[in-house]
DNA sequence: CAAGTTGCCTC
DNA sequence: CTCGGAG
DNA sequence: CTCCGAGGAGGCAACTTG
C-alpha cells in the first residue's frame, strides 16, 4: 500500500488519463460520423468515381482539391541538391503531411539522385526541427517498426484495410474490389476513396510520431478480437488522413511504399543529411587558395565538388557501419551524439547483432568463373539446399553484467563449471533476413553449448552457416523437409526433423571481428577452433564440403559431386586479396584460351574480406538451373491470369500455366509464372489475350482444370511456352499430376518464362506423366 | 473445438 | 529465391 | 553495375468462423 498522498496522486493521474481517453474516443467517433456522412454525400453526387483512372496517378499534385485541406504549411520542394537547399525550421512535432510530401515527391521521379536528395533534405529538416521524429520517419520509410530481429510485425493485410475503408468511407466492398483491380494498389484505392472528402471541421492533423506509435500499437495487439482492435486503430488514422496521406498510410501498412527507395538509399540519405548538418562547411581559407589559383569563376564549382566529396565519404561510412550493425536505433543515436566521427567504433560489429550476410553474384558458366577469378587462389564450396544461419554465441561469466533484456532475447544454457568458474552460454541464431530464429533450433543451441564446454579457450564467436535437414545416416534431405520444422518455442522433444549445421565462415572469434581478414584466414580460424563433431541429441556440427583445386575439370567434378548430394550448386570464393600486376598472366589454365583474349591484362583488384550486404564478385554462385545445358526446362500451356499490381497493373501477371494430361486430354494447372517476361511481351499478351477477345473467358475453357485456383481471367489453351525452374515440388494446391506421386499434386520451384514456342502445338507440351517422372528422377 | 483464412517467413 | 527496368 | 519492386512455391502460426 502506497502512502496516502501518493495514492491520491495515482488516482488523480489515472482519472486524468481516463478522461483523456474518453475525450479522444468521443472526438474520434464524431470525426468518423462526419467523415462517413461526407463520403456518402460525395457518392451520391458521384464525385469519387467521376475521374477516370489515367488521371488518378498523376493528378495528385496539380489537383487543387487534394493539397489544401490537411495542410497548413506551404508545400516544400525537397529535390534540390543538398548544398543549395536550406532546411527551414518547422515547429515540432513534425506532421505526417511532411513525410507524405517526401513520399509524393520521391514517386514523382525515377532519378535515383533526385530521390536521394529528397530524402536527404527531408531528414535535414527533421535534424534541424524535430530530431525525435527522425527515427519514426526512418522506420516508416523502411517498412519496419524496428530492427528485423525483434518481433514487430503489423499482422494486418488487405482484409483489415478494406474493412477500414468500407467503414470509414461507406463505399461498398464490391466497389472497393473493382477499384483495387483497376488501380492495382491498395494505397491508390485509399487515395481514390478519400480524395474528395470534404469535412466541415478539419480533424486534428496527424504527426509522424503519432502514426508510428499507432503502428507499434497495432503490432502489439494479440489474441481473440485483436483483428477488430487493429481495424479500429487503422480507422482512427484514416479519419485524419485523406488523399495522398491516406495513400501512403495504406502503402505503409502493407509495407510497400513504392517510392523507389529502400535500405541502401535510406542509409545514403541519412549519411548525407548528417554530413550536411555536421561538417559541410568548407573552410574559407581552403577556398581562398582555389580562387587564387583558378580565379573567382571556378570557386563555386570547386566548392560544390568538395562538398560532394565529403558527402560521398559520409555515405560510405554510414553504409558500411549499417551493414555491420543494421539497427537504425543504434545508428541514429550515435549520429545524434557524436556525428560521423568515430562512428565505426561507436557502432561496432557485436555479438548479438547480426551483420548483413554477404551474398554471391550469379554466374552462368564455369568459363565465367575462371574469367573472373583467373589465376587467383579460390575455393569451391557446396551450396546446400537449406537455410542460411548466422550463429552468435558468447560465454557469460558470473562477473558479466548484462541487461536482463539482452539475456532474455537469446538462448541461455544452464550453468556449468569452466576453469573453476561458474558460467553459462548465451546464443542467438539469425536467418538470412536477420530474423531471430533461435527458438526454432534448440538442437543447434545444444551443439554450440557443447563446443564451449569441450573447448575452454572459446569465449565468443559469430559464424555463417547453412542448416540442412539430414536423415539418420547423415545424408542431406530436401528443402521441403527442413520447412516442416516447427518455428516457435520448440523443445528438444518436439524436434522431428533432424538437421546439421554446415559452417562456412567466421566473422568474429573471441571478441575479435574478422571481417577485414582474408577468407583464408577466417576459414582457418573456423577450422582450427570450431571443428566438426557429433554428440548425443545435438545437431551435427560440420564444415561445408569444399575443394581448393582451381582447375576446370576439378571444379566441374566437384560440382557434379555436389549435385549427387542434392546441393543446389556451388559457391566459388576468393581466398586471398590479390592484385594482379600489369601484364601479368601468371600460371596457366587448361581452359583459358578464349577468356584470355577477351580480358585485358588488367583485372580489377578484389578483396577477399567479408563484405556484408554486398553481392561481391569475390563470391560467385553457380547453380544447376542457371546453366542452360544442365538445367531442364518444360513446355507449358498458359490457361489463365490475374490483373497485375503496381508497376504491372496494365498487364496480365501472374499467368497460370498447365501441363497437358494425355490420359484425359485435359490441361491441369501446375504453377503461376511472373518472371522472365519483358514489357514488350506483356504488351503482346494484352493483344493475344484481350479481355473481350476470342481467347479469353470468365469461365474455364473446355478441358482446363484449375483446381481451387481462381484466376481473374481464363485463357484459351493454344500456346506453348518454354519455362525453367529449379526443381519440382509436392504441392498442396496444384492439381497437376495429382495421385501420380503420393496424394498431392506437383508444382515447380522458382518458375520463369524463357520463350514462346511458336513451333509447338498444345498436344506437344509436357505432360503430367513427364512431370511425375521428373519428380521421381530428382528424388532418386 | 475443428476448419478455413491470412500473415509472414523460408527459399 | 527469380527476373526486367532504369539510372 | 547497382538498386528497386514486380511476384513464384510452400509451410507454420495465429486468428476468425462455422
UniProtKB/TrEMBL annotation:
InterPro entries for this protein: ATP-dep_DNA_ligase (IPR050191), DNA_ligase_ATP-dep_C (IPR012309), DNA_ligase_ATP-dep_cent (IPR012310), DNA_ligase_ATP-dep_CS (IPR016059), DNA_ligase_ATP-dep_N (IPR012308), DNA_ligase_N_sf (IPR036599), NA-bd_OB-fold (IPR012340)
MF (Gene Ontology): ATP binding; DNA binding; DNA ligase (ATP) activity
Compositionally skewed regions (Basic and acidic residues) per UniProt: 49-62, 586-597
GO biological process, one term: DNA repair
Keyword Electron transport among UniProt keywords: no
Signal sequence segment: none
Disordered, as annotated region: 43-62, 586-610
Keywords per UniProt: ATP-binding, DNA replication, Ligase, Nucleotide-binding
Residue ranges constituting the ATP-dependent DNA ligase family profile domain according to the UniProt record: 492-661
Keyword ATP-binding attributed: yes
GO cellular component, one term: nucleus
Family: Belongs to the ATP-dependent DNA ligase family.
PANTHER family named in the record: DNA LIGASE 1/3 FAMILY MEMBER, DNA LIGASE 3
Protein name: DNA ligase 3
Organism: Wallemia ichthyophaga (strain EXF-994 / CBS 113033)
Lineage: Eukaryota, Fungi, Dikarya, Basidiomycota, Wallemiomycotina
Amino acid at each position: 500500500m502506497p502512502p496516502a498522498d501518493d495514492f491520491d496522486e495515482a488516482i488523480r493521474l489515472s482519472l486524468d488519463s481516463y478522461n483523456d481517453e474518453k475525450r479522444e474516443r468521443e472526438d474520434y467517433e464524431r470525426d468518423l460520423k462526419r467523415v462517413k456522412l461526407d463520403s456518402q454525400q460525395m457518392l451520391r453526387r458521384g464525385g469519387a468515381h467521376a475521374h477516370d483512372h489515367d488521371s488518378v496517378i498523376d493528378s495528385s499534385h496539380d489537383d487543387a482539391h487534394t493539397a489544401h485541406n490537411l495542410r497548413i504549411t506551404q508545400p516544400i520542394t525537397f529535390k534540390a541538391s543538398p548544398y543549395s537547399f536550406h532546411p527551414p525550421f518547422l515547429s515540432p512535432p513534425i506532421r505526417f503531411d511532411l513525410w507524405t510530401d517526401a513520399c509524393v515527391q520521391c514517386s514523382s521521379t525515377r532519378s535515383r539522385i533526385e530521390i536521394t536528395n529528397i530524402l536527404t533534405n527531408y531528414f535535414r529538416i527533421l535534424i534541424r526541427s524535430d530530431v525525435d521524429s527522425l527515427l519514426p520517419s526512418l522506420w516508416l520509410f523502411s517498412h519496419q517498426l524496428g530492427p528485423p530481429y525483434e518481433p514487430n510485425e503489423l499482422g494486418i493485410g488487405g482484409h483489415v484495410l478494406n474493412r477500414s475503408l468500407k467503414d470509414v468511407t461507406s463505399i461498398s466492398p464490391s466497389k472497393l474490389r473493382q477499384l483495387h483491380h483497376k488501380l492495382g494498389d491498395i494505397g491508390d484505392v485509399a487515395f481514390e476513396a478519400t480524395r474528395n472528402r470534404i469535412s466541415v471541421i478539419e480533424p486534428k492533423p496527424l504527426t509522424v510520431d503519432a502514426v508510428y506509435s499507432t503502428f507499434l500499437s497495432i503490432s502489439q495487439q494479440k489474441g481473440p478480437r485483436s483483428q477488430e482492435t487493429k481495424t479500429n486503430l487503422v480507422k482512427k488514422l484514416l479519419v485524419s488522413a485523406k488523399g495522398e496521406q491516406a495513400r501512403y498510410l495504406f502503402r505503409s501498412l502493407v509495407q510497400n511504399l513504392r517510392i523507389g527507395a529502400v535500405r541502401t538509399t535510406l542509409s545514403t540519405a541519412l549519411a548525407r543529411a548528417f554530413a550536411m548538418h555536421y561538417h559541410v562547411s568548407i573552410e574559407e581559407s581552403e577556398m581562398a587558395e582555389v580562387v587564387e589559383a583558378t580565379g573567382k569563376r571556378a570557386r563555386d564549382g570547386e566548392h560544390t565538388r568538395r562538398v560532394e566529396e565529403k558527402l560521398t565519404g559520409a555515405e560510405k561510412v554510414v553504409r558500411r557501419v549499417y551493414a555491420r550493425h543494421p539497427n537504425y536505433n543504434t545508428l541514429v543515436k550515435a549520429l545524434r551524439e557524436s556525428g560521423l566521427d568515430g562512428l565505426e567504433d561507436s557502432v561496432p560489429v557485436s555479438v548479438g547483432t547480426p551483420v548483413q550476410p554477404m551474398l554471391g553474384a550469379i554466374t552462368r558458366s564455369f568459363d565465367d568463373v575462371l574469367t573472373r577469378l583467373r589465376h587467383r587462389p579460390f575455393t569451391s564450396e557446396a551450396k546446400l539446399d537449406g537455410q542460411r544461419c548466422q550463429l552468435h554465441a558468447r560465454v557469460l561469466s558470473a562477473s558479466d553484467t548484462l541487461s536482463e533484456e539482452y539475456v532474455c532475447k537469446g538462448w541461455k544454457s544452464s550453468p556449468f563449471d569452466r576453469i573453476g568458474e561458474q558460467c553459462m552460454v548465451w546464443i542467438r541464431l539469425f536467418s538470412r533476413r536477420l530474423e531471430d530464429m533461435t527458438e526454432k533450433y534448440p538442437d543447434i543451441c545444444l551443439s554450440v553449448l557443447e563446443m564451449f564446454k569441450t573447448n575452454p579457450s572459446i569465449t565468443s564467436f559469430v559464424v555463417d552457416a547453412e542448416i540442412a535437414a539430414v536423415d539418420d545416416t547423415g545424408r542431406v534431405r530436401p528443402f521441403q523437409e527442413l520447412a516442416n520444422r516447427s518455428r516457435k518455442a520448440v523443445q528438444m522433444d518436439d524436434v522431428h526433423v533432424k538437421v546439421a549445421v554446415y559452417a562456412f565462415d567466421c566473422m568474429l572469434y573471441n571478441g575479435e571481428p574478422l571481417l577485414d581478414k582474408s577468407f583464408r584466414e577466417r576459414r582457418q580460424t573456423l577450422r582450427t577452433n570450431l571443428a566438426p563433431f557429433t554428440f548425443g541429441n545435438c545437431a551435427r556440427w560440420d564444415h561445408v564440403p569444399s575443394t581448393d583445386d582451381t582447375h576446370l575439370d576439378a571444379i566441374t567434378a566437384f560440382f557434379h559431386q555436389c549435385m549427387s548430394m542434392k546441393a543446389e550448386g556451388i559457391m566459388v570464393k576468393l581466398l586471398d586479396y590479390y592484385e594482379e600486376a600489369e601484364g601479368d598472366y601468371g600460371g596457366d589454365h587448361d581452359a583459358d584460351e578464349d577468356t584470355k583474349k577477351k580480358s585485358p591484362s588488367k583485372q580489377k583488384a578484389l578483396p577477399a574480406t567479408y563484405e556484408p550486404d554486398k553481392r561481391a564478385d569475390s563470391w560467385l554462385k553457380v547453380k544447376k538451373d542457371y546453366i542452360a545445358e544442365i538445367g531442364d526446362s518444360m513446355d507449358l500451356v498458359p490457361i489463365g491470369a490475374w490483373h497485375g499490381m503496381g508497376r504491372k497493373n496494365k498487364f496480365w501477371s501472374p499467368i497460370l500455366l498447365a501441363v497437358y494430361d494425355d490420359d484425359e486430354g485435359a490441361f491441369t494447372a501446375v504453377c503461376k509464372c511472373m518472371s522472365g517476361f519483358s514489357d514488350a511481351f506483356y504488351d503482346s499478351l494484352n493483344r493475344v489475350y484481350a479481355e473481350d477477345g476470342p481467347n479469353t473467358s470468365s469461365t474455364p475453357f473446355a478441358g482446363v482444370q484449375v483446381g481451387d485456383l481462381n484466376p481473374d481471367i481464363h485463357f484459351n489453351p493454344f500456346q506453348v511456352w518454354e519455362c525453367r525452374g529449379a526443381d519440382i515440388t509436392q504441392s498442396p494446391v496444384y492439381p497437376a499430376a495429382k495421385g501420380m506421386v503420393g496424394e498431392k499434386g506437383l508444382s515447380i520451384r522458382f518458375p520463369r518464362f524463357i520463350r514462346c514456342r511458336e513451333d509447338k502445338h498444345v498436344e506437344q507440351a509436357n505432360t503430367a506423366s513427364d512431370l511425375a517422372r521428373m519428380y521421381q528422377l530428382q528424388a532418386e
